[in-house]
Amino acid sequence: MAKITPLREAVASLVHDGDTVALEGFTHLIPHAAGHEIIRQGRRDLTLVRMTPDLIYDQMIGMGCAAKLIFSWGGNPGVGSLHRFRDAVEQGWPHRLETEEHSHAGMANAYVAGASNLPFALLRGYTGSDLPKVNPNIRFVECPFTGEKLAAIPSVRPDVTVIHAQKADRRGNVLLWGILGVQKEAVLAAKRSIITVEEIVDDLEAPPNACVLPYWAVSAVCPVPGGAYPSYAQGYSERDNRFYKAWDPIARSRETFQDWMQRHVLDTDDFAGFRRVLAESMKEVA
Questions:
Q1: 176: β partners
Q2: Cα(229)–Cα(59) distance, integer angstroms
Q3: Whole-prediction pTM value?
Q4: Bridge partners of 150?
Q5: What's the count of helices (H) and strands (E) in the chain, helices before strands?
Q6: End-to-end CA distance of the chain
Q7: Residue range 22-47, pLDDT digits in tens
Q8: Torsional class of 209: left (φ above 0), alpha (ψ -120 to 50), beta (otherwise)
């Protein structure tokens, strides 16, 4: 049953050291505020899962939260590499990071299998790819009906899934719209879930066939307006492309990264504090 609660309390009670944690959102509705709160609370040894890990995972990896990353494509969209992710893989800083790479189709099917309470996913894929050579969890089976060779991968069943959405009502039913990735499947596959939302309303006024996550499938709903920044929330905020470009030089060196994270995340109480300090620092460099 969904509990409407501050983000700090939700992370403290639902995200534990050693958990498998998925923070999903595909370009749109990326849960940056929740990622920052996990960093503030010093979680360690997490197995992070995500399609297209971008800036928030670069920050979490660089701050030492992750022991393993299960993913499909990682990068700073439209800009280039994730320097903290790369440093962890190549140099083991701040510590060694184990990786398990899949295709987007593989990850999407793995979430669907997890939401369906199945042990693995089947798909036509990975033919001609080198990924099976480096990922022993990509295997091939023969269809018992046609003899066709199909790829099989373990389902993704996180301990905790975290997403950002537009609205929730006072019972904890959640409405999200616009470009959706695998948020619904990631929540339904997880043991626990945290959903940050732009606002709490009396009535969702959901249109027919809208994506609504029912209150009985959600653990915690946390009001965090703007909690997807610098990604966007359709109907509420636009993507801040300047931040994605600005992140590249910040993340290139360990020292500038650590200074930035200390000032903007560790020394702030919450996401509103982060946005306030960020506005100050952006004025300084303007």
A1: 211
A2: 14
A3: 0.96
A4: 141
A5: 10, 13
A6: 46
A7: 999 988 999 999 999 999 999 999 99
A8: left
